Amino acid sequence: MRASLIQICVDPAESVAARRDRAAGLVRERTGSDLVVLPELWTTGAFAFDHFGEHAEELRGPTFLALSRAARDAGVWLHGGSIPEHDAGGRLYNTSLVFAPDGTLAASYRKIHRFGFDQGEAVLMGAGDRLVTVDLPETTLGLATCYDLRFPEQFRGLVDAGAETLVVPAGWPARRAAHWNLLARARAVENQAYVLACGTAGTHAGTEQAGRSLVVDPWGEVLAEAGTEEEILTVDFDPATVAATRDRFPALKDRRLGLAEPKEIRP
Description:
Blueprint: E1 2-7, H1 16-28, E2 35-37, H2 52-55, H3 62-74, E3 77-86, E4 92-99, E5 105-110, H4 121-124, E6 133-135, E7 140-143, H5 152-160, E8 165-169, H6 177-191, E9 194-198, E10 203-204, E11 207-208, E12 214-216, E13 222-225, E14 231-236, H7 240-248
Parallel strand pairs: 1-2, 2-3, 7-8, 8-9
Antiparallel strand pairs: 1-14, 3-4, 4-5, 6-7, 9-12, 10-11, 12-13
Helix pairs in contact: 1-3
Domain CN hydrolase: 1-239
Keywords: Hydrolase
GO molecular function: hydrolase activity
């Protein structure tokens, strides 16, 4: 299976419409890939909080239409990263879109863990409330976004739902790039799954982006890693490795669930 991660540069000098057209064009060029992945909030920039409301779209808005056509034209499964979505009541969400090769919407996922510690995304956007997986012919994707990477229980839930390939679009800051690599590898090892982590390049809202998109195998080995500039990372991987790894080293079978709550011990 061939995956292409498009580590697009979010430049505030480029309009949202121009970047949307450019991203769709980059997707159309990936005709030899099976799966293409875009980063988190690439239309606005993940830290451009002041612009979330201005550029928020209905689920089936202009970005939806552009990506749907691009997926169909390229004949690829497309994880369109995420966009600022507004619902009918005007509530904002950080929403990912996944398209089938015929351009139809296969799934959408609203980010569960919002970053900001009572600021920014954490107060401006609503939280998703469901885990989402997507069945491809070769593998089952588990969807997560950026800050979700710090919460292993979400990924365990995705694995319990059948996920074999964990896709994580992000707008990860450069100052915590070491965490990005470490956490992506940890989620791969503990879940014995592939991790496809696609970040943005550039600097937006004064926050330098880490870039360094990477693909990690179920043993935690980095199969490929991008640099810090705009780049397309294309990797061939074997989805059957997941089952082989889980069979060879069946650690997931040794999970102990439903343990009793700890009791207070008095001297």
